[in-house]
């Protein structure tokens, strides 16, 4: 499954480069950035980091890699559970209009999975790898000569049974990048 997805992505990238292959007219072809987040309420804490590095293949097309990490903690009367989730992804972006882009990404995440054991009356931890194929669109807003903020909305086309996302639930990302 992963090999087929990566081969399909490589073919897609090759076709797009051939079709839209104007050399990048930017002075810096590499860009980097990502996002970080924190969410907190009474019994829930989530901290996440997602650095990225990308390469401008042409003035309209870029590709890159991301690393993913999140720490989640539930602390209430019924349970005290913490999760350390991590993984990585490869992505491609095509910009058909100024500041707007289409995004596709194959991600593979390793999640903590807790299952309640009625015999011991405790939660037991195991780990599971979950694939995602994310597609969507985004908007970038320049904030200087070489930096920008971005926001994107993605959906997962694989919808693996272990995915934390429900059927067609949108995924919202906001971040910053230098050189993008």
Summary keywords:
Outer membrane protein beta-barrel domain-containing protein; 1 helix; eight-stranded antiparallel beta barrel; 180 residues; mainly beta; Porin; signal; single chain
Q: Radius of gyration, rounded?
A: 19 Å
The CATH class assignment is Mainly Beta
Question: What about the largest sheet?
Answer: 8 strands, antiparallel, barrel
Biggest sheet strand order reads 1-2-3-4-5-6-7-8
Structural class: mainly beta
Number of strands: 8
Share of helical residues? 10-25%
- Roughly what is the average pLDDT, rounded to an integer? 83
Signal peptide: 1-19
Keywords: Signal
Protein name: Outer membrane protein beta-barrel domain-containing protein
Structure commentary:
This protein is mostly beta strands and 180 residues long. It has one domain (2-178): Porin (Beta Barrel). It has one helix at 2-19; strands at residues 30-40, 44-56, 61-75, 80-97, 100-117, 122-142, 147-156, 171-178. The chain has an eight-stranded antiparallel β-barrel. Residues 1-27 have low confidence and may be disordered. Keywords: Signal.
Could you write a compact summary of the structure shown?
This protein is mainly β and 180 residues long. The protein has one domain: Porin (Beta Barrel), CATH 2.40.160.20.
Secondary structure layout:
Elements: H1 2-19, E1 30-40, E2 44-56, E3 61-75, E4 80-97, E5 100-117, E6 122-142, E7 147-156, E8 171-178
Antiparallel strand pairs: 1-2, 1-8, 2-3, 3-4, 4-5, 5-6, 6-7, 7-8
Organism: Ignavibacterium album
Keywords: Signal
Signal peptide: 1-19
